[in-house]
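Proteins fold reproducibly. Look at a sample protein:
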Amino acid sequence: MSALQIKKGSSKHSAYNLRPNFSDTQERHTLAVLVDNEAGVLARVIGLFSARGYNIESLTVAEVDHASGLSRITVVTTGTPQVIEQIKAQLGRIVPVHDVHDLTVEGPSVERELALLKVAGDGDKRVEALRLADIFRANVVDSTLQSFVFEITGTPEKIDAFADLMRPLGLVEVARTGVAALSRGA
């Protein structure tokens, strides 16, 4: 190879191109983190995100093994592939963290969320709200003459779609649990 070919050649053969081939696009990832169920662990995990300016879209925490004293934190976050890798590596270094799984890249997974939506209205709007709730398989868990409270479970996208349709019908308030997720299979 001549000096001219090296100079004009592809940058992928350059010694100065040591950066891995990462994308700059934002990706949504669901992380499952198994931690000791003790005071301050959640604060340390959340502190990792806030100190570095990483956003959390959804966060759920619950004890999953009382005998072993383990809790599972499910975090939905967005970032470039480099940021996601950095988050996983930093989570793994926190002492009470036992395991970190990126459910988005490890294969098929199941994500569900529960939401309660209060919709106020009368007449045709009430009828339409009930009709849409039936289509989305949402349950009426409270009813007054002025409003309904619907309970809906499903993917975050399903809940977003239901809320969008309820807004013009009198959506007053929304409470969401956050994503619970498990990988599929054995």
About this structure: The radius of gyration is 23 Å. The longest helix spans residues 81-93. The chain has two domains: 22-102, 109-183. The CA atoms of residues 92 and 106 lie 16 Å apart.
